[in-house]
Fold this protein.
Amino acid sequence: MQHPTQRWLDMPFIDSLRVWSKGTIPDSEPPVAWTIDRMDEAGVTMGMLSAWHGPSGPLINNDEVGAIVKEHPDRFVMVASVDLRQPMVAVRELRRCADEYGAIALRVLPWLWDLPPDDRRYYPLYAACCDLDITFCTQIGHTGPLCPSEPRRCIPYLDHVALEFPELRIVAGNIGVPWTNEAISLATTYQNVYIDTSAYTTTRYPSEIVDYLRGQGRGKVLFGSNHPAWSAPDCRAGLDALELDEKTRAAFLRDNAIRAFKLPF
């Protein structure tokens, strides 16, 4: 999830998300209380609040996210973002975020950079994530904004990363459609690869991911929203229809995230 800044809201790629999300994205920067209210509505106690950095610069910078996390430490943990074009500057910034704000993850969006996750510019960051014992978050599957989807293919790109960095915990967001079976294959093969359901409401989950969640993937699938485009209440609505048993439901909504991100709960 992200708490939007005006810079983020004014980006052209948000226009296509506005069409999909049907009015949930505000035109102007809202107060943090608005995001917390949406969390409370869905019964979400802790949100993973992400910064955004793209080729044009920071759209939601790390210090803005860090300030919110420090002000509301019982509601948010930080997910950092960095400039992929300057790997060593990016490594130092990631370490700063871990030291100053307790960042528990790094997030890089392949579609935003038009670079797949096995590009050489990511690799110093993977090593830093392993050293810091923090999680790498990315997105897989067809891109919502009108940008190339190819960098979000699971195989071969994310497969290379998981193979070459077995210690790296990877959370692959957005389910992976139309390559969901590739995502399931990676999560099944690699101990540290997880899938999250961000940007999907329960009624849009592919049958493959539902079957995996109910079966051998009950420890590998995490609930996610995509606030503010798809808020937690919208994404959680209809959960009962999945008919998850009590243990699987708890794992999906809470326990898998604690393990994937090494949260201190």
Q: What stands out?
A: The chain has a mean pLDDT of 96.
